[in-house]
Design brief:
Blueprint: H1 2-11, H2 25-53, H3 66-69, H4 79-93, H5 99-124, H6 133-153, E1 159-160, H7 167-172, H8 176-179, E2 189-190, E3 194-196, E4 204-206, H9 215-244, H10 250-269, H11 272-278, H12 287-307, H13 316-333, H14 340-343, H15 345-368, E5 373-375, H16 380-383, E6 394-396, H17 405-425
Parallel strand pairs: 5-6
Antiparallel strand pairs: 1-2, 3-4
């Protein structure tokens, strides 16, 4: 709103000190991050007190983990802090007419509502499992189709596949103000199903290559494949973050690292000169995603003030589903969804550990009558904690001695940082 207010004042001829700063992505990104962080810090305490007064506490399953039992009754649904903080930074400093910002706002509210409904059922309906897996999956798939169909049909979501910056153009575009204003040569901008993939010369992969038919039906087929891929990515990211949310600070810390990288990629992909230098896809208008992700990271850092061990509040599904949805949608909008398995490697491994655990246990129980687990517990982070020996055999025994959750969280974040740096390094590897 501040951004639009200053735009209006400039249009009517009012000149105030500092108005020019709103033309710079860097300033608005920093302002959004600081605003989100301060809102989380100052409003967080009030929200935690309100949650405690309403007795909105965590219900903990008896997993044999001493650390987990102690968390019973800790206020949950702290994702409200994250959502409020993100919205504060975004509404103040983002260009709300930008299609990418609009989609991310819809995704934030949609996933937040989905997670809130799940937490509400757990806390107030006293159903420990919350919303059914099928119900959550349907909600995530619907969001995926909303985003996917918008990417397909909106004339404002385009890419510029090849950019040759001439010397005369570079002089005109040497300031952030002009580079990020969305000025581009019309004939170079197209609707495309291309995305970014590492290790190849131009970092590009076209979903058209997966289409079994050509011609008019091939055009529809390639977009159908792309939309289905978008649905898969958003659903997987949302669920992956949800499964990672099991230790104090784990989901928020690893997600903040991912958010920083996505912000950098949005900055580069939305900048004509930088995208040309790195030979990556230029997406007009996507620089606003960098501001959104700055607010996202600021909100998570502010939330960590209360969520670090020992946690004063848990994000609940209200927060974890929202975080995953934002990560998935932003990656899709920047055409970086194929980098997600590496960038979000922690979420990927956590989800894979649950999938493999369930599948192998059912397979061995059906074949031998006795189910065998791969790990002592899934998701993977619980495997490293102190717990009683599980009933039945385990392929990979729990570590001796067991690790404290602070050490587990710290090491997972370190691994996340390594994966994040590796993802950025791929921009120069061909």
């Amino acid at each position: 709103m501040i951004y639009h207010l200053f735009q209006y004042l400039e249009k009517v001829g009012v000149d105030l000190p500092g108005m020019g700063l709103m033309h710079y992505l860097s300033f608005r990104a920093m302002a959004a991050a600081v605003t989100a962080m301060l809102v989380a810090l100052f409003a967080g305490n009030k929200i935690i007190d309100w949650l405690r007064a309403k007795q909105i506490g965590e219900t903990v399953r008896d997993l044999g983990l001493a650390d987990q039992i102690q968390k019973k009754g800790t206020p949950t649904m702290g994702g409200l802090i994250i959502i409020l903080s993100i919205l504060s930074g975004v509404l103040l400093f983002c260009d709300l007419s930008n299609i990418y910002v609009q989609l991310l706002l819809v995704s934030t509210l949609w996933c937040g509502a989905l997670g809130f409904a799940d937490d509400y059922i757990k806390v107030f309906k006293h159903r420990k499992e919350g919303m059914s897996e099928k119900g959550k999956l349907i909600g995530q798939v619907i969001l995926g189709f909303i985003v996917g169909l918008t990417v397909w049909m909106s004339p404002n979501i385009v890419v510029r596949e090849k950019v040759e910056v001439k010397e005369s153009v570079e002089r005109r575009l040497e300031t952030e103000t002009t580079v990020t204003s969305g000025r581009y040569v019309q004939e170079d901008v197209v609707k495309s199903t291309k995305t970014t993939i590492p290790f190849v010369k131009n970092h590009e992969f076209d979903y058209r290559w997966l289409s079994p038919v050509k011609g008019k039906w091939g055009w529809y087929c390639k977009w159908a494949i792309y939309v289905l891929m978008i649905v898969l990515v958003i659903t997987a990211c949302s669920n992956g973050t949800n499964l990672t949310d099991g230790l104090d600070g784990l989901a928020a810390g690893t997600s903040a690292v991912v958010g920083v990288v996505l912000g950098v990629l949005a900055w580069l992909g939305g900048n004509l000169i930088d995208s040309n230098y790195l030979n990556i896809m230029y997406i007009p208008g996507s620089g606003e995603i960098a501001i959104f992700m700055s607010a996202f990271v600021g909100a998570l850092i502010g939330f960590l003030w209360y969520n670090s061990f020992p946690a004063q509040v848990f994000m609940g599904d209200t927060g974890s589903l929202t975080i995953g949805g934002i990560i998935g949608v932003s990656a899709v909008l920047m055409r970086k969804e194929l980098l997600i398995p590496l960038l979000c490697g922690i979420f990927f491994v956590e989800s894979l550990s649950v999938l493999l655990q369930r599948s192998y246990f059912r397979y061995t129980r059906k074949r031998t009558g006795t189910g065998v687990r791969i790990w002592s517990m899934a998701p993977l982070h619980h495997h490293y904690q102190d717990k009683a020996s599980p009933a039945g055999p385990v392929l990979i025994p729990k570590p001796v001695p067991p690790q404290h959750e602070v050490k587990i969280t710290t090491r997972f974040i370190i691994v996340g940082i390594i994966l994040a740096v590796s993802t950025l390094a791929l921009l120069k590897i061909r």
